[in-house]
Design a protein that fits this description.
With 274 residues, the chain is an alpha/beta fold. It has two domains: 11-71, no CATH class; 84-256, Rossmann fold (3-Layer(aba) Sandwich), CATH 3.40.50.300. Helix content is 53%, strand content 11%. It has eleven helices and five strands; from the N terminus they run αααααβαβααβαβαβα. Strands 2-3-4-1-5 form a five-stranded parallel β-sheet. Helix 1 runs antiparallel to helix 2, helix 7 packs antiparallel against helix 8 and helix 7 packs across helix 9. It is globular, with a radius of gyration of 27 Å.
Length: 274
């Protein structure tokens, strides 16, 4: 980088050129984009040099944090955006909004506790799973979302390619593993054993959040080996937060409510006036 002339000799054009040259080197894209506007505002407000610098640095830090959150959410692999604030708790009174908002703060992730969302299809499990995962990513945690079937398929392929240890280690490094749709499909013994290895890798060290349409007593239909099933349930439920979302469809209620709101009001034309 070419050092600009002394302050008294530095023209606005030379200063702008120096900033344009320095910011990419220092990786300060926000200062590069905003310095002229902030400088004009500082001149109007007769701000000092330090005030001007603080404003620039604060803006750069805020933008960098926003980019980090966006990157963590993107890397998590969520199939669609679902946030806790978008969840209508009035449609499923079984779910305690206070508990969900407490979980969204992420203390359970710091301590490596599991989370289990158990209930029938349409009761809001995936919404809550994704919403809590997004909240965790925005709080700075490394998160990975995957369905049980997709994870087992990935593990089987990795084992065939002699990359199983690397794949399990990669899933072991994330702070929160969001495992959706556990129990929808029956797993053969090999698939169940591979999934068990992921749980063991994360046991009491890093959190797993599971959404399942089956009660724990029914997991034997997914993990057909009784001992393996018991070991998996033991690892997932130890010191876990267990939320039962019930049997009545959240999606159906939400659809009915939207239709009711959009239904036009009609008058009974056959009714006689009083």
């Amino acid at each position: 980088m070419t050092r600009p002339a002394g302050r008294d000799e530095l023209t606005d054009a030379a200063a702008d050129a120096a900033i344009e040259q320095a910011c990419p080197i220092l990786r300060l894209p926000t200062i590069r984009a905003q310095h002229a506007r902030i400088a004009e505002a500082a001149a109007r407000q007769k701000a000092g040099y330090k005030g001007f610098l603080v404003e620039l640095l604060a803006m750069e830090c805020d933008e960098r944090e926003d980019r980090r959150k966006t990157r963590l959410i993107r890397e998590a692999g969520f199939p669609r955006p679902k946030r806790i604030d978008d969840f209508d708790f009035t449609l499923n009174p079984l779910i305690d909004p206070g508990l969900i908002h407490t979980l969204a703060k992420g203390a359970w992730i710091r301590t490596g506790q599991p989370l289990c969302l158990i209930g029938d299809s349409g009761t809001g499990k995936s919404h809550l799973l994704i919403g809590l995962g997004i909240a965790a990513a925005e709080a700075g945690y490394r998160v990975r979302y995957v369905t049980a079937a997709a994870l087992v398929n990935e593990l089987v392929e990795a084992a065939d390619d002699k990359l199983l240890s690397r794949t399990i280690a990669r899933y072991g490094r994330v702070d929160l593993l969001c495992l959706d749709e556990l129990g929808y499909l029956e797993l053969d013994r090999r698939g169940a054993e591979l999934l068990f290895q992921v749980f063991t890798e994360r046991e009491e060290r890093a959190s797993v959040a599971v959404a399942s349409n089956s009660a724990f007593s029914e997991w034997a239909r997914t993990f057909t080996d009784p001992r393996l099933c018991a070991a998996i349930v033991d690892r997932i439920t130890f010191e876990a937060h267990i939320i039962e979302t019930g049997t009545e469809s959240y999606r159906l209620r939400a659809t009915q409510r939207r239709r009711a709101k959009n239904q036009p009001i009609t008058r009974d034309r056959d009714r006689s006036a009083p």
